Amino acid sequence: MGIPGFNGQYANAIGGNCAGQVVGYTYLNSQGSIVAFVWDKVNGTRQIANFGCESEARGINSVGDIAGFLDSPPGGVSVAPFLLRLGQSYVRLPPLIAGQSSGARLVNGSDEVVGFGLDGSGAEHEVIWNPNGTMTDMGDLPSQYENYPTGINDSGSICGFTFGYLNGPLSYVSYIWNPDTGYLPLFNPLNPVNSVWAVGINNNNVVVGRLLGNQGATLGFVWNQATGYTMINDNLDPGSAGWNITEVDGINDAGQMAGVGTLNGQNYAVLITPTGTEPVSGTVTLGNYPAGPNGVLVTVQLYVAGTTALADSQNTTLDPSGNFTVQTGAPAGTYDVYVKASHWLRRKLANQTLGASGMSGLKFSLINGDINGDNTISLADFGQLKAAYGSALWNSNWNPNADLDGNGSVGLSDFGILKMNYGMSGD
Question: Structure pTM?
């Protein structure tokens, strides 16, 4: 399906989310004015805001918050970053160095924004704008330079690749990065001096991309911490014989991957669905949360029934109706299923059967108020709410977990929710 621009002009689509929204930029008219747009199947193409200058949308998260560039905005810089939260006015993000250009490229469900900032000498640094108003300089993978972050998940883990040809024998090396542990390099498993490009990451820290094989062709891969690299071509179902998967460009929380493949010499866009797994699906009701469940990150865990033996743990996000689906490789059997969300207590459904068609119809109702995530609502949570009281996004004391009602600020209504559920514990 093509995405139309305005007044017959073409549209350049750059990012999308699981709700089917697409963002990018298009010419507003034949005179060449460029504007950021958002598109969906129901509403079509529409300008996201009147910024008073040219603009480009680069990323959209699961709830519809959009990050991007302002081109030649007021203030004397060439490029400035912005974040537009759904239903609110846009926020212009601060530069790395006052008076220098910066730009936003990616945004996750926690409104962490990844982009770049120029330093005083004009060199580009890859940076993260945190919702509390602070900025983190990602630096570079040791011995590498020219960093290209390509994906961020809702836990703040980032994948990307970096170039270091002038500083050593390696060319493109991929990585996972997070603020606690820094860089984990992902070298090409076929030949460490060959290039590897990581381009997508899901909420389970599974990374996909392409790498250069020993014959000079690119190969699609999937990687995780437990098993390392898996070449898609080496693990195709017998019914997919003849396909050559040359790249994988994205992966969702259910493990489905989008990419490019060839069959009989013809290129195709492909959807790759893992076999040997079964769906676990259900609905989560989030207590005292008028903002709605769309995009809220939840952890789904399967324990062997009546034991503490963890069989599987998956992260995923809820849709607008609170529904979720994860794929599990756990064997058929009876399990206790737990669901936990950030500031809600964990809940269990005991003795659920996983069969050949998976497990469905699970219904959870979560209690709000667990700000510090310890599965109890206590004085410690009150202390965190007190510290964040009166704050909103980009304030230095902002704590998204203290925004219990999801209205974008911490106030009296959040205190009321905590007081109502005080003293309760999760399963």
Answer: 0.88
